[in-house]
Amino acid sequence: MLEDESVDLADVAGYSVGAWLSDTPRNIKGKGMLWPDRAMLKLLESLD
C-alpha cells in the first residue's frame, strides 16, 4: 500500500492504514508469525 505508491502520509486515512496493517503478518520474537486480524478474532471468540 504505502510502499508502492507515492502518497503523502498526512493524506492517508487512519482507518485504511489500520486495516492494511491488521492484514499484514507480524513476526513475534519467540512465537513466530502472527496475523493481527486473526488473533483478534480468536480473542473475541474466547470471550464468549
Question: How far apart, in Å, are the first and last alpha carbons?
Answer: 35 Å
Task: Tell me the radius of gyration.
Answer: 14 Å
How are the strands of the biggest sheet laid out side by side? 1-2
Task: Point out poorly predicted stretches.
Answer: none
Treating each run of at least 4 consecutive H or I residues as one helix, how many helices? Answer: 2
Assign the structural class, choosing from mainly alpha, mainly beta, alpha/beta, alpha+beta, or little secondary structure. Answer: alpha+beta
Q: What characteristic shape results from the CA principal axes?
A: flat
Total beta strands? 2
What is the string of SSEs from the N terminus onward?
A: HEEH
Mean pLDDT: 81
**Approximate helicity band:** 40-55%
Query: Strand content of the residues, in percent?
Result: 5-15%
**Sheet having the most strands:** 2 strands, antiparallel
Domain tally: 1
Report the oligomer.
Answer: single chain
